[in-house]
Amino acid sequence: MQTDPTETRLRELMLASLDGDAAAYRTLLSELGRHLRAYFTRRLTPAFASHAEDLVQETLLAIHSRRMTYDRNRPFTAWLHAVAHHKFVDHVRRQSIRLTVPLEDDAPIFAHDDNADALARRDLDVVLDTIPARTGDLIRRTKIQGASVAEAAAAHGISETAAKVSIHRGLKSLAARFAGGSK
Fold first, then answer.
1. Among candidate residues 123, 144, 137, 126, the one with its CA nearest the CA of residue 166
2. For 122-142, how does the pLDDT look when each residue is reduced to its tens digit (9 = 90+)?
């Protein structure tokens, strides 16, 4: 898995600061201030935009006071996001703000959560395991991995026509099963 350069840089600064490097810690706080300012500004309505700086300071203070809770084996930006998110939620509650916050693009600063992808892959594997193995593999190769029918058929030593029929019947069986029908 390729790590985002921002994640790498911020994590290295955090680890160095935890090891006592004061210059790295000053640099980390400065860079976090810029990232957090943008993060909060995107989430606040224009009427509350002036609160962004307060949220940045509260979050930096929380990071400072809780920095020893950071698990060195985890992505730093995921920990940062959790702290920032909690500060934002606390702020919204204090202000009794009822607003819709766009959740798109937590942007390049935050690590991608692979857990949801892993759960979806596991669920997909469970579903495909309910049909014959060859059919499940043909569906995986063509519909999920993007292989052509010819490539999938060649991998199983069958004709393209046989592969197409197998895929069609497998998908039809799954659709019937999960639409409440029978096989």
1. 137
2. 888 888 888 999 999 999 889
CB of 124 within 8 A of CB of 136?
no
- Give the model confidence (pLDDT) of 79-124 as tens digits: 999 999 999 888 888 876 555 555 555 555 555 556 666 777 788 8
Helix (H, G, I), strand (E, B) or coil at 110: coil
Q: What domains can you pick out in the chain, each with its CATH number? A: 5-95 (1.10.1740.10), 114-178 (1.10.10.10)
Q: How far is residue 69's CA from residue 21's CA, in Å, rounded to a whole number? A: 17
Return left, alpha or beta for 107; rule: phi > 0 is left, psi -120 to 50 is alpha, else beta. left
**Could you count the other beta carbons within 10 Å of the beta carbon of residue 32?**
23
* Cβ-based neighbours of 84, under 8 Å, separated by 6 or more: 36, 39, 40, 55, 59
Burial of 15 (0-12, 13-18, 19+ CB in 10 A): middle
Alpha carbon distance 14, 103 (integer Å): 26
CA distance 39 to 80: 11
Name the burial class of residue 125, with classes exposed (0-12), middle (13-18) and buried (19+) by CB atoms within 10 angstroms of its CB: exposed
